[in-house]
Amino acid sequence: MLLIPIPMLSQGTYIDENALQPAQVNTYWNWGDVHTADLQLYQLNGIQERNLTSEQRAEFFRTEFSKLGLAASIQNYTFSTSKGTVSGNNAYAVMSSPRAAGTEAIVISASWLSRAGRGTLNLRGTSTVLSLAAFLKDYSLWAKDIIFIISDDYLHGMHAWLNAYHGTIPSNLRTDPLEHTSGVIWTALNIDYSSHSFSHLGVFHEGLNGRLPNQDLINSFRLISHYTGGVPMTVYDHLEYSDSVDRLPEQNLFPPWVPPFIQQSPQLQQYGYRVRNVVRHIGYQARGMCSGVHGLMHQFRIDAITLFAVPADGPHGFHALGRIVESTLRTMNNLLERLHASFFFYILTSPGTFMKIGMFLPSTILVSVAMLFRGLGEWVTAGWVCEISEASLKGNETEKSSPARGTWRNRQRPMLSALIVVVTTHVLGVLVFNLVCSRWFAEYPSVSFIFTTVSVIPPVLLPLLSTNAPEAAPTSMLLKSSNLCLASTVISITSLLNFSLAAMLVTTMGIPLATSCTSSSTTTSRLRYAGYCVLAWGWLVLLPGEVESAIWNWEVLGVWFAPFICIVYAPLVMQAAIVCLQGS
User: Any long-range contacts for 79-82 (C-beta under 8 Å, 24+ apart)?
Assistant: First the structure.
């Protein structure tokens, strides 16, 4: 996996869909439209100073859209979670296409809060959406409806709107039906512009549960940003070394103790930049998190990205951003069908290079196959036993130079005890998952009690299992065999759906599960068991922030990471722990 960021394994990006024709139009966004955006920004600054409520903000946005003659409305929503309720108000408007029947649509959105964090408001991104609504309605070239959305908060506002739009309202969401709708949404742009000006436009593309948009959308935007707006594109907010010489140590790729001749090596700088992009991609995708508001749309087969204006002291602002968004919308307006020709499984190593699935998938598949062979080897070994007769031992005493010869005999491999352990650990995982998602855990987060309980239960229940007969294979060998085969199957399947999650499983389970074994020393067995317990459930104690985030993402956004860790990953590791414990 350390070879993934190497430049020679990547290839240049390119456009697959001929209908897109990026950066091939004359844009009409001008300084008058920039003035409109400035006026909207002035009003939004007033809203911030007056500290208006969510309802008052949404009413202001609805009024602004209505002044333009657009069909506008407000959506009220409330999510119920184990920690209480989350409420908000979204404002949206629909601009009907003058050249089509409104069966397809494009979305332009901005959230009230920026992904920059710490309560940063996305004022300029919001004002960009409002000014684009005033600009785009004056042209009759649109073949698709355009939906403008200003969602409340950061993520849950857009999530509520999308569920209401597509009629997939979960049981914990109470919302009003949308007053205005359109056709099938094909593509979407989310604008995140919180600073005064920017130097680069960063692309965030990861969606919920590891989904990615069609790469043609990102490639088209890169060409448009470069040739139409004159703004360099970057992956996330990571700047290459040549672009970040005035921002060190903020964008330094190496720790300060690294010698200067290493830090100044062009090859290592390029490798370090790609490593940052790959690590961040894996961080988002493995946890099933979306890297922006756009990621909520992928579950509805909407190709979407977030355009993040990287804060800087210039030189770009509303003028460059407006031209880029207009040209990108014109490109998406050319589509005759959904984007399908380019890649859906890839890793962006740099703005202009990527790795396709055939280059990075073998890194996890090879490990999973090795685990499968190790498990099958344990199964074969468990079926045979070597018996040395007394005659062979007496003969060996006279001929000390030759080892004693034994006879291999087939023996039974009863799987009942091993299957009971497997089922019990997964049932225990289900109980832990329901416990951490309960209102009791939200009010009394006693993670140490849960960790201690799930670690003590297996040793207490282990003596209740029936012991295999002496002529049968030991349960520890059969359990290890099934554990490795099951883990290999999980990794192989996951690698096709979410490579980053499979890479995390390979890193945390590959060696530990393969090296689990019994020991004649009780102390050694218990120490090994404690180590596996920390690997399986230690995140409850060591990472409370991640636990809270994973639970919220599951309850509100439907991210599978929390149930997967509790019901699949942790039980597999605990089975390896029980293998060590059975030898004591």
Answer: 79/156, 79/160, 79/172, 79/173, 79/555, 79/556, 80/172, 80/173, 80/174, 81/172, 81/552, 81/555, 81/556, 82/437, 82/438, 82/439, 82/441, 82/442, 82/551, 82/555
Q: Which residues contact 353 (CB under 8 A, 6 or more apart)?
A: 7, 10, 11, 12, 13
Q: What is the mean pLDDT of each run of 10 residues along the chain (584 residues)?
A: 84 89 89 95 94 94 95 95 92 91 93 90 96 93 94 94 94 92 95 93 95 95 94 91 57 70 78 91 94 95 96 91 95 91 92 92 93 93 76 56 67 86 94 91 82 88 70 86 96 93 94 87 89 93 91 94 96 93 66
Structure tokens at 98: 């003058």
Judging by DSSP bridges, how do beta strands 11-12 and 353-356 pair with one another?
Answer: antiparallel
Contact predicate 285/98, CB 8 Å = no
pTM for this model (two decimals): 0.90
Q: Is 348 helix (H, G, I), strand (E, B) or coil?
A: strand
Q: 3-class SS at 218?
A: helix
Q: How far apart are CA 81 and CA 156, in angstroms?
A: 12
What is the CA 181 to chain-centroid distance, rounded? 29
